Amino acid sequence: MRTKITKVKNIKFGKGFCVIGGPCAIESKEQLLKTAEAIKKNIDILRGGAFKPRSRPESFQGLGKKGLEILKEVGEKIKKPTVTEVMDPRDVELVCSFTDILQIGARNMQNYPLLKEVGKTKKPVLLKRGFSATLAEWYGALDYILKEGNNRIILCERGIRTFERATRFTLDLAGALLAKRETGFPVIIDPSHATGNPVLIPPLVRAAKAAGFDGVMVEVHYNPKIAKSDAKQALLPREFNRIFKSL
Ligand code: PEP
Ligand code: MN
């Protein structure tokens, strides 16, 4: 099946290899700007979370609206479209006013009221696969969005939970390839969350390209040591940029 195209400003997911990069969470204007400036030549889309789905309530939850404002400002500054996660159906309108792509995170892939709400918008939706979701369940989530009239979709494989603990999750490249064939929507790969290990990220970006996926999403921080979330898997800008020199 020919891949459908999801256009985001002048970027076409489904045609060529699109790169999304940026920090896990937006921590400050300085942090996002420093990171974005350092990687802008190699990204199509800037990412950064303002509402973070953390496993523990005492962990950094994101800057909320303030984070959205920073994302919009920095995106405009570096002239790149942006993507950020929305977790609550009540925030969809707010998040829409600050970003170009709405991200549905793995933990919210089966948040059906949220899927319906983003389905009612005209914004492109980056739909991550839940880490315990079968392909059929992922397609079910996709159908919730399509049914409301929004067909601007990008699917994202970010690893599933298996018995293996040596990597953070297990990157299901085969499943993701099937998803691309069976849905026709562009599929991108997130090796950052899938592995939790910076050493494994560059080769998996190359694997994603070689296998014909439509792009990648990679976490980068100008100083991973001080990152407030997913510090272990963040690449330094120079490590990130090196991947794309040889791609
Ligand atoms: C993220 O992209 O920052 C994120 C939380 O990813 P996931 O939903 O895949 O865990
Ligand atoms: Mn993250």
Describe the structure.
- It contains 9 helices and 10 strands.
- The radius of gyration is 16 Å and the shape is globular.
- It has one domain: Aldolase class I (TIM Barrel, Alpha-Beta Barrel), CATH 3.20.20.70.
- The model has no long low-confidence stretch (mean pLDDT 98).
- With 247 residues, the chain is an alpha/beta fold.
- Helix 1 runs parallel beside helix 2.
- Helix content is 35%, strand content 16%.
- An 8-stranded parallel beta sheet has the order 9-8-7-6-5-4-3-10.
- Bound molecules: phosphoenolpyruvate and manganese (II) ion.
- The site of manganese (II) ion has 5 residues, from loops.
Topology:
Elements: E1 6-8, E2 11-13, E3 18-22, H1 29-39, E4 45-47, H2 65-78, E5 82-85, H3 92-96, E6 101-104, H4 112-119, E7 125-128, H5 135-147, E8 153-157, H6 173-183, E9 187-189, H7 191-195, H8 201-210, E10 215-219, H9 237-245
Parallel strand pairs: 3-4, 3-10, 4-5, 5-6, 6-7, 7-8, 8-9
Antiparallel strand pairs: 1-2
Helix pairs in contact: 1-2, 4-5
The site of manganese (II) ion has 5 residues, from loops.
What's the quick description here?
The chain is an alpha/beta fold and 247 residues long. The chain contains nine helices and ten strands. It has one domain: TIM Barrel.
